[in-house]
Design goal:
- Helices cover 42% and strands 13% of the residues.
- By secondary structure, it is α/β, with parallel strands linked by helices.
- Strands 3-2-1-4-5-6-10 form a seven-stranded parallel β-sheet, sandwiched between helices.
- Helix 3 links the parallel strand 5 and strand 6.
- Helix 2 packs parallel to helix 3, helix 4 packs across helix 6 and helix 6 crosses helix 10.
- The chain is globular, with a radius of gyration of 20 Å.
- The chain starts with 6 loop residues before the first strand and ends with a helix.
- GO terms for molecular function: aldehyde dehydrogenase (NAD+) activity.
Length: 326
Amino acid sequence: MSDLRRRIAITGANGFVGREVSRALLARGIAATGLVRRDAQCEPGVDVRHIDGLDAIAPDAFAGCDAVIHLAARVHVMSDTAGHQSSEALLNAYRAVNVDGTLAAADAARRAGVTRFVLMSSIKALGESDPGRPFTEDDERNPPDAYGVSKAEAEVQLLEFGSRTGLEVAVVRPPLVYGPGVRANFLAMMNAIARGMPLPLGAIDARRSLVSVANLASATIECALNPAAAGRVFHVTDGYDPSVAELARKLGEQLGKSARLVPVPAALLRGVARLAGKTAQIDRLTGSLRVDSRRIREALGWQAPQSLDEGLAATAAWFRTARREG
């Protein structure tokens, strides 16, 4: 089937990744159907279909679609670790959306005649730090928190569902995603650099894999279209893993503002973090999380359309425009 006759459904089409996937599909002449709640806004050109939740989704929502890119999820937020819920209640909240909701969406899609279902998972399904080498897709799942557990369980159960029913399932595991519109820690780092604030990262040589949202959208669409993706898990990265200090310097170059990096030893940072109750945040900065993404290149022939520097340049350009308009 040619791209011009295809239609792909996107759950969570209004989100950071969903909007980029929508734009990329439409740019290729592939029709995009966005499955979102009633108050959500999608990209122009997307066929919007409203749903009340993944657990209430009906096969009609996927009518006419060849594939589904499943992005809707309960995402990891720092407040989830602040003790507002018991660990069991928190895990159940994640499972309700990320496991049960995913399986409900997959079953509705299958009953509608969809043949391919792509799950957006997370490297957190494997762990928070790498085992002294880049993670591969075949590494044992050892999720560090409730969000990671829910993603790991969704992967296992969805792949089993596919093998049992004939639905072609592919799983995409990204590390940190950045790009125009990014939020959270990445945006905070750009804000700090732009304001000339000192960052205690000069001695941090831990390397972290990243993927630009444009690269992630491209790879996810490839997994929705390529016959060789069925039944497999794929890691997606930019292909170069900068150290945290190097990333800050590169961002500074793109922002036209040299990053003020102070060489504070990692052990001292971790000690201060324990006192301040910020251990998880500092661990993410001081520990390596490298991801091997050779499989998608070798098995599907996919190549990242953006380099790390190009992705950072696009992100910095958006940031400068947002600051001027804000």
